Protein 1
Amino acid sequence: MQKKNKKYAEIMHQADKAVGRKEVVSLLKKAAMIMAKSEENLAA
């Protein structure tokens, strides 16, 4: 769980610093996937 939170924080930081729209959208999708997986593990 802690590893996923760290990875999520890293991706969100990269998205904050990203320049292009496509880059930002790609990073936000990755972050959403990580959060979905962590929520899935909590529900199980």
Protein 2
Amino acid sequence: MRRRTAIIAGAGTIAGLLAVSVSWWYFDWGHAPVEKLHHLHGKSLDVGLADLRQPDRQLDYTMADCPGGEFRVELYNTYPPGDPKAAQTRIKELQWHRPRYHIAVWLHQVNGEWVVLDTCRWKEGIVF
């Protein structure tokens, strides 16, 4: 009788751990609703983004033609809108869309190489 109890308790523990793991994954706990991916900042396009694979969307624009909005406001901290030189800066925006969250990475050219300028990771349902 003891063995059955131990096996049932063991199965219950495994089921409980599995439920916690699945809910952690599903609800994306451990992440803020909107956050930066600081570990990517300053990395080159090839090195920093290798783990993310192909982006779902890519935009290329100058700061003069930046789509704007709150979503891209951080770009203006580096390239102010009133600066004519900043207006000509090229930006590459990459986006990945996952079931529960999205990622955007903005790159600019430094010495002819695309380098991560800013990042944003936001949960599904967040509106900018």
